[in-house]
């Protein structure tokens, strides 16, 4: 039987999963927790924006996790041998760029820089480059608004060029020593296949398109002239960024003999191009045209694919369907999720985080009475609309469709009798309405959502939330069968680059048909609940537009902003 | 030295206070807790709207409390004798009507009705007549909108005719047995002076004007024809309601020999007309033109007096200042607080109740961490605007200036880091902004507020709240010197009906000058805080108008209402 390996690099650990490509059965899995820093992250007590990782942990993780997963698979399935593994797929966090030298070696692996955090991997949630992000946004708005149009109108401090420019400004020694910068998702597959030298390094479509303003419409990465205006040295770096990027159906290369020996795997098996965890999570959950995959955790990532022509190939006279820019959708990238499809990425800035806030910070009634379990139990007994409460899910801003971090939460309808579980339920409902707003936005622009598949811890563990989502959206909520959707997506990529001839699959559609599934339990809308939620959603939308849209006639869009200005001034 | 007695009938007990009329010194005080029912209130577990009292408790209370207060005064002041008492004043809750027979005897004191709650006093907070209140409002809107214009546009279930009509509808035997109905504030002074028979009973201006649509502009109480449309029997009752009512500078009569003997007081001393507790509380706090008195407790009562001509004496050509109807002010009654002045009454439906809700129902962090003390301590360390939060103080509706019980609370600006003490402070600030809205409304209509004097438990015990009120309103907050402002107001009324010739005073102004004062500690606005609160108030007002005013361009006035409709339907 043919098997593939998926490596899923998360924020604190890497998981290895071994899957049967004929049916998706999960034979073995193992997790390696990164060793450096706190829970795998290098922090700076004096600067809460800083978050770095040690690329050496990534490499050690491959060895430890792959070996352990193979051992588990051997125990689980009689006759399993590691030489039956036909391909490898990899997903990582991102944007997590690493400064590398001419050999493709991360600078922190050189003696000179080994203790310098700037020479390490700049983890996705590092926000040290917030000033540089603002600078890039301002320049792009002025000179190349199209660069921002595909990523929601604002360049983030979490992204590639913000981090590199910040390094250039604050630690030029590291910047000068770096030949180029590679995303974690590019670098790891390159190392395993011996292609990590900058001249051979293949860069993945997903990271480039979503985080580095790469688009074939303007010839790839932003032009040198633009980058030079930020800093001439950044302009020079442009030459080290290739003009071509690759989707996950392409190989980074073949596993080197050295790594094959180290991992007890067949040498020369193909390693797929890397991608971000959410995107391969969508693949592992069965994403396809019309299928919205929602990864629900502290925040959400909502993904769709659309089969259309890239903008540059469309003329006004063509009668084929084509993809408009969808206002507020934060990423529209050709091939970023599945090859041959546009990947569309939306998200809610906080979902689980809002419930965590209520439980950890407000803690109504104390630790026991105010636990998730206790509140959920009581909230489940309430009927929709019964509390008279309505909330906006903006405690961490609004990523989609308003793309505005300076929005804040709202709770309305309290009386002298309002109970904590009513607020808890109102917060869940608010996130459900936020989810519906995203679905509606896609559909308003012609991207049909005919199925919703959820994955992530909250989707698996909270039936109340899933039922409310079904009732509020009027759609059946399905749950991805695998609890490891991201690693499974990586296994699927491994099976596609292996190909049918090697026992794998020739297309993602074939691989997903064989390897993905949904759980037996799904959540269907209950008509009477859905009817109430339709009424509540109309009110939610009224608040959403009044507080969220600058030129809305309600003229309340200033309120949250002015409060934040007052707050900032009082600091 | 001359002294007076003040009797202050509260919801659960009656207090007797003995005061030196030359300087306001409080010699003796005693409280009698009513015996009947729970904490003095007859309740019905099957009907939470029902709240009645036993008038016999009122009588026993006079005896017990007066005697105890005299004993205390004798102990406190050498040479004090009860024959030095020159007058009595009385305040009560209201509207608290009592069905009485031809002798002025409450029906529950007759054997036939002794166990019938409907034959007792209908306490102010009895809401059994809510349907009848709606019926009265509808009819008045149609036929006599002027009846409602002076009481905020809606006739309340707490008021005189709602209760009587409900009795008529649900217990006609009691209604038929009643010759008439007397307010507690009318009946008690009448009993002490032997004038309780309906032909001699004097009715007080305060209860009649604020709760029974009495106004000289239309000849007193509502016309018989109007009441007959509600029910012919109610129309007949109109004949038992006199056409004249009396302010607190008038006597109900002289203390009878029987009561003088019982209480060990000089016989024939004058007893002032009764009034509601809040109104005599305003008198005891030093109310005068330009002085706003705020009684701050679970809710607030905000009172002003205005010296102008009654509307019927004003013609368009007159150049004298006159009092307009002030939209949203819930009571404008000639002579209701001080004789010769219009009494203006406004209020916030919930103040202390909102903080109690947060502490008792939400209880952030549990009983200890979420106590008033703990939250106040932490909230006091915050700077204005620092939390980014803004709230509306509508958890129990809005009495002034929106006069709308179907408004609900709102909290805005929450992030993932918002702490309970920030919410607690935002709730205090919301009530401060509500207070400012009332002040502004008075001033917009020409009633100048040049001084604010506060009384009530919260004003005395919460310096943080008082400082926030000073900062938010930009005005100095003073506190009434006496902790018993209502009883002191009754003593003042007693001194005025006694008159200067008997050692009392000839006017309320003289009496207040001698007997009232403010505490040494006052709260002055801190300029930098006031500046931030001005900005926050502009945002508060924006939310207030958008959510509270039907025809406001913001068009959000439907939101709270529709939520309540959905809630009602889900019940």
Structure in words:
By secondary structure, the first copy, chain A, is an alpha/beta fold. Chain A folds into 2 domains: 305 residues, ATPase, nucleotide binding domain (Nucleotidyltransferase, domain 5), CATH 3.30.420.40; 229 residues, Nucleotidyltransferase, domain 5 (2-Layer Sandwich). Helices cover 39% and strands 17% of the residues of chain A. Chain A contains 20 helices and 22 strands. In chain A, strand 4 and strand 5 form a beta hairpin. Chain A is globular. At the A-B interface, helix 12, strand 20, helix 19 and helix 20 of A face helix 12, strand 20, helix 19 and helix 20 of B. Strand 20 of chain A pairs antiparallel with strand 20 of chain B.
Summarize the structure.
2 copies of one chain form a homodimer. By secondary structure, chain A is α/β, with parallel strands linked by helices. Chain A is about 40% helix and about 15% strand.
What are the low-pLDDT stretches of chain A, counting only 5+ consecutive residues below 50? none
Give the CATH superfamily of the largest domain in chain A. ATPase, nucleotide binding domain
CATH architectural group of the largest domain in chain A = 2-Layer Sandwich
- SSE-based structural type of chain A: alpha/beta
Cα distance spanning the termini of chain A: 63 Å
| Number of DSSP strand runs of chain A | 22
Strand order of the largest sheet of chain A: 17-18-16-15-21-22
Instruction: Supply Rg of chain A.
Output: 24 Å
Briefly note the CATH topology name of the largest domain in chain A: Nucleotidyltransferase, domain 5
The multimeric state of the shown protein is: homodimer
SS summary, helix count of chain A: 20
Helix content of chain A: 25-40%
Largest interface: A-B, 60 and 60 residues
**CATH class division of the largest domain in chain A:** Alpha Beta
Q: Give average pLDDT of chain A, whole number.
A: 93
């Amino acid at each position: 039987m043919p098997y593939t390996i998926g490596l899923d690099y998360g924020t604190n650990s890497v998981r290895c999963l071994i899957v049967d490509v004929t049916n998706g059965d999960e034979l073995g899995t193992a997790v390696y927790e990164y060793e450096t820093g706190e829970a795998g992250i290098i922090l700076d007590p004096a600067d809460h924006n800083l978050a770095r990782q040690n690329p050496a942990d990534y490499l050690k993780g491959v060895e430890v996790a792959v070996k352990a997963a193979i051992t588990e698979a051997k125990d689980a399935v009689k006759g399993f041998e590691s030489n039956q593994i036909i391909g490898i797929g990899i997903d990582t966090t991102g944007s997590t760029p690493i400064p590398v030298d001419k050999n493709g070696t991360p600078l922190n692996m050189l003696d000179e820089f080994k203790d310098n955090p700037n020479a390490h991997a700049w983890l996705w949630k590092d926000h040290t480059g917030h000033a540089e992000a603002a600078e890039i946004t301002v320049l792009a708005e002025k000179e190349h608004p199209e660069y921002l149009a595909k990523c929601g109108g604002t360049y983030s401090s979490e992204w590639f060029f913000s981090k590199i420019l910040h390094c250039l400004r604050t630690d030029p020694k590291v910047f000068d020593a770096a030949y180029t910068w590679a995303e974690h998702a590019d670098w790891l597959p390159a190392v395993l296949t011996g292609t990590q030298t900058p001249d051979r390094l293949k860069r993945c479509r997903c990271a480039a398109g979503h985080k580095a303003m790469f688009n074939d419409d303007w010839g790839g990465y932003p032009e040198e002239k633009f980058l030079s205006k930020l800093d001439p040295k950044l302009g020079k770096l442009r030459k080290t960024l290739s003009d071509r990027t690759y989707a996950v159906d392409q190989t980074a290369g073949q596993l080197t003999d050295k790594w094959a020996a180290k991992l007890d795997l067949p040498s020369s098996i193909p390693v797929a191009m890397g991608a971000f965890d959410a995107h391969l999570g969508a693949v592992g959950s069965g994403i396809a045209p019309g299928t919205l995959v929602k990864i629900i955790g502290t925040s959400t990532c909502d993904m769709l694919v659309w089969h259309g022509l890239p903008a540059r190939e469309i003329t006004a006279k063509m009668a084929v369907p084509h993809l408009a820019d969808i206002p507020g959708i934060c990423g529209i990238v050709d091939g970023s999720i599945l090859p041959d499809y546009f990947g569309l990425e939306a998200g809610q800035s906080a979902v689980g985080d809002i419930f965590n806030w209520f439980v950890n910070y407000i803690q109504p009634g104390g630790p026991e009475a105010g636990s998730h379990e206790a509140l959920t139990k009581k909230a489940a007994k309430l009927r929709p609309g019964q509390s008279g409460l309505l909330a906006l899910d903006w405690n961490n801003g609004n990523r989609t469709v308003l793309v505005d971090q300076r929005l804040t939460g709202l709770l309305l309808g309290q009386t002298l009798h309002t109970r904590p579980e009513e607020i808890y339920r109102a917060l869940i409902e608010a996130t459900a309405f936020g989810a519906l707003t995203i679905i509606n936005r896609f559909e308003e622009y012609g991207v049909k959502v005919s199925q919703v598949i959820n994955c992530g811890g909250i989707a698996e563990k909270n039936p109340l939330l899933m039922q409310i989502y079904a009732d509020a959206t009027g759609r059946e909520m399905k749950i991805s069968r695998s609890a490891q959707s991201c690693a499974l997506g990586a296994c699927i990529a491994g099976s596609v680059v292996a190909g049918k001839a090697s026992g794998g699959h020739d297309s993602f559609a074939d691989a997903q048909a064989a390897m993905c599934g949904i759980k037996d339990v799904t959540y269907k809308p209950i008509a009477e609940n859905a009817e109430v939620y339709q009424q509540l959603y109309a009110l939610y939308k009224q608040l959403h537009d009044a507080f969220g849209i600058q030129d809305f006639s309600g003229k309340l869009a200033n309120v949250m902003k002015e409060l934040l200005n007052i707050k900032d001034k009082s600091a």
